[in-house]
Amino acid sequence: KQEVTQIPAALSVPEGENLVLNCSFTDSAIYNLQWFRQDPGKGLTSLLLIQSSQREQTSGRLNASLDKSSGRSTLYIAASQPGDSATYLCAPDTGTASKLTFGTGTRLQVTL
Amino acid sequence: DTGVSQDPRHKITKRGQNVTFRCDPISEHNRLYWYRQTLGQGPEFLTYFQNEAQLEKSRLLSDRFSAERPKGSFSTLEIQRTEQGDSAMYLCASSPTSGGANEQFFGPGTRLTVL
């Protein structure tokens, strides 16, 4: 059974800092891994998808890496802004259904 | 708006009542997923459709829960005889069937409160 752990559980940083969010998963037989952001009481917004054959994916200030063999992914956020404040969730997909397994997320607060 | 939509956004019901939620996926997406999220937790997989066929169900989906996708387009999730433990956010996601990437796009969710 896939299990996902995200560290840290919560993070507060001043605006402008670069930060790294960590995700680890127990079953390395994944097809893809997605990173999402979730604002309070809202649905999930897909940020990045990394296919199992890729090691890295970039979108604007976001960069995600994947080390499938060690069961790890990181999300790097450059030059953080207050608008980045949200919960960030990573989710590897496994099985023929490609269902996603989520951790409990990292709650990020970026202060002025 | 071409994203995933869900209706209603909020539902308050009394214990023992039946409720039904609707999800409209992105139009060209063959796959549709239901997840449930409780406070402070990540979403948990409930069930999955490929077109109109329900191909996988989680053990979380008790016999009080039923999901359909009759014409391979929108889907409904019904909960019978609701219990307070059913209170959660119910999320729907869709994805295209394409080689390799299977990026899932989520709707805004339906928040269920069972009194």
Range of helix content of chain B = under 10%
Amino-to-carboxy terminus distance of chain B: 33 Å
How much helix is in the residues of chain A? under 10%
User: Biggest β-sheet of chain A: count, sense, barrel?
Assistant: 6 strands, mixed
End-to-end distance of chain A, in Å? 41 Å
Number of DSSP strand runs of chain B: 11
Helices, strands, pairings?
The complex is a heterodimer of chains A (112) and B (115).
Chain A: E1 4-7, E2 10-14, E3 19-25, E4 32-38, E5 44-51, E6 56-59, E7 62-67, E8 72-77, E9 86-94, E10 99-100, E11 106-111
Chain B: E1 5-7, E2 10-13, E3 19-24, E4 31-37, E5 44-50, E6 53-57, E7 65-68, E8 75-79, E9 88-95, E10 105-106, E11 110-114
Parallel strand pairs in B: 2-11
Antiparallel strand pairs in B: 1-3, 3-8, 4-5, 4-9, 5-6, 7-8, 9-10, 9-11
Task: Tag the structure with descriptive keywords.
heterodimer, A: 112 residues, mainly beta, six-stranded mixed β-sheet, five-stranded antiparallel β-sheet, globular, B: 115 residues, seven-stranded mixed β-sheet, four-stranded antiparallel β-sheet, 11 strands, 49% strand
